[in-house]
Amino acid sequence: NINDAASIKTAAASVAKNLLTYYTGTQPGQTPGILPGPPPAGDYYWWEAGAMWNTLIDYWRATGDATYNDLVAQGILFQIGPGDNFMPPNQTASLGNDDQGIWGMAALAAAETGLSNPSDDPRSQWLVLARNVFDDLAARWDDSDSADQCGGGLRWQIAAANQGYDYKNSMSTGTLFNLAVRLARLTGNATYYGEWAERTWGWMETVGFLDKETGAIYDGAHVQNNCSDVNRARFSYVLGTFVQGAANMYNATDAGAAWRDRLSTLVNGTDVFTGDDCVPVESACEAEGTCTTDMRAFKGILLRGLAVSAAQAPFTAGRLGCVLEGAATAVAASCDDAGDEGARCGFVWTEGRDDGARGAGEQMNALAALAA
């Protein structure tokens, strides 16, 4: 019953319990903090575990159930790396800016919600970790006039040898934007971080990744073409990341009118990710059945952003409330009960039934819907 808080809390607890069945980091010989992978060793790339810990922080915030807090802290800390910036040596060869940014957002969520800092060591405080990631991403920004830099933005990959280094993408830039806005609020340094928020947003519009008329956010483009070959694929987690940031910016700044307009435009962009009865869909791949394991975790990140917007910018609550309610209602129909292992949830929510798909991403989406 989505209108009963106790019922939602019980359902969320069951979904969270099953989500942790995919996590093997506490087992002998396994690496703490990550999901099994990357392919072909397992199904999951490194970023998805960062998103999982963030989802469990959201679950604690929404329900007050601290069952997994120690596990969350242990998992995040094991992946910070020697630079305290989420660049662990066993991941750096394939690390993307968006991957690092997603882990940084998880650390920032821990700071915002008051998750106990792990020790007296100032280097491992949640806020410090999030700042370190922001500093790394900001240092990789290049707004030179060179024709192969696109006037700014972040490349997808960090290492020059990696496929994708020549591609600037919206999610990498989105994590920088998201961190900038939230750090401005949490630290009180609105001037420095606020300038970065304005810079990233302005670049997204200028380069054509963000359509300021429709709210569409496109995936990215190649530097060798000066970002003129925009890939118009749209993914829900990118929009959710920008919505979360824009809602915080609207709530925290005197420039409310400008950010109200920007946020309103993004909210318009949610239409492509909703089906009948306001139920979320991953429109780039869901109908065709081509969603990868990564893509199966995107809707939860969208829902996080929409929930933040409804709370931080109440003028969006009417429209987004339909999506949040539609998601929770659909999840109730898409999950079964696996008994001691908790409720297992499907991926496609528009059919009013459990489609039988199973994975950590599906569980994260469902948990996000119930925690929103």
TrEMBL record:
GO MF terms here are: mannan endo-1,6-alpha-mannosidase activity
- Any GO BP annotation: fungal-type cell wall biogenesis
Q: Which Gene3D superfamilies does the protein's record reference? A: 1.50.10.20
Cited InterPro entries: 6-hairpin_glycosidase_sf, Glyco_hydro_76, Mannan-1_6-alpha_mannosidase
Pfam families linked: Glyco_hydro_76 (PF03663)
Q: Which Gene Ontology CC terms are recorded?
A: endomembrane system
Q: Where in the cell is it found?
A: Endomembrane system
Query: What are the entry keywords?
Result: Glycoprotein, Glycosidase, Hydrolase, Membrane, Signal
Enzyme class, broadest EC rank? hydrolase
Q: Which PANTHER family match?
A: MANNAN ENDO-1,6-ALPHA-MANNOSIDASE DCW1
Q: State the similarity comment.
A: Belongs to the glycosyl hydrolase 76 family.
Protein name, entry field: mannan endo-1,6-alpha-mannosidase
- Which organism is the protein's source? Coniochaeta ligniaria NRRL 30616
